[in-house]
Amino acid sequence: MRYGNIPKSEFKDACLSKGIAEARILEGLMALKAYGLIKEEDDYLIVNVKELNAILEEDSSEDKDEEIKSEEELYKLANELNIKIIIEDNRDKVKKISDSVVMGEVRSLGIDAKRRRVYATKGKCAIVDILNDTVTNQVIKEGFGLVILGNRFLKKMAEEELKSVAKLFPMMPIQQIEDKIKEIFEKLKWHPTVSKEFDVYSISRYEKNFEYVVKEDIEKLFKYRESLKQQLIDFGKVMTIVNKIVRNGEVGVIKDGKLHLYDDYIAIDRIDPNPNVFKVVEVEGNFKDGDIVVIENGDMKIKGTNEIVTTKYIICHK
Fold this sequence. Notes:
Number of helices: 7
Structural class: alpha+beta
Radius of gyration: 32 Å
Helix content: 25-40%
Order of helices and strands: EHHEEHHEEEEEHHHEEEEEEEEEE
Strand content: 25-35%
Strand order of the largest sheet: 4-5-6-7-8
Number of domains: 3
């Protein structure tokens, strides 16, 4: 971990020269210390340069939100930063769970699936952070408030739009609040990271079992993710079977009117993650005991006579 030493007096003078008030300087120092980015020692500030630079670089990339004015500019910037982006404009990010609970979600999908969900009922909300299949943080808040999720630029724009009206929300009918929220979306939907269409849900009832409803909905998410994993596993098994279907080769011999497969082959009754497996199967055609069965370009025949042989089973490599 790389550190740099800065005299406290130089740090303070540099901040003051930028027009930063002394009280704000103290607040900033307290925040940096809280995140482990600096330590105080005698007359010096010991700065964790690597971590601080990483945060500053992250902040500078987030500030580029303000430069983006169209979808084309967004893709151009992503290309410059060597970032792959996928714009989803048809995914439901909000839903009405019941007559008394609504939920909104933002997510980031990569190696890990990161989600932040906000559940709300009358007079209460829950903010839940989820990493893959684990709840990493959950906060319950009561009373009146606003939770804005999104990139830094849009959050700033939404906050500016809400500044003059949000304080009046507790005195407004719910329909009027909905209308104000819709107005803000209409103003901001020019930005490529805002959907051109949007849904607004509201509730006016209090859910007495709020925490239970939140827990149950998150469990549904985890079960859904588990089912997706199983589907992927099953798909992988099916593709393995498909890739093992025999296209060419001697596969077995006729004995007692049935096809007895050689050791390197099996027969299955269906393409499925868990098919039934056979080594001896019924076949139809013009053949006799002792005939060798071959498959040529997917067609099953008697070796030497080219008589076609059929079966309801699928011959695969073992």
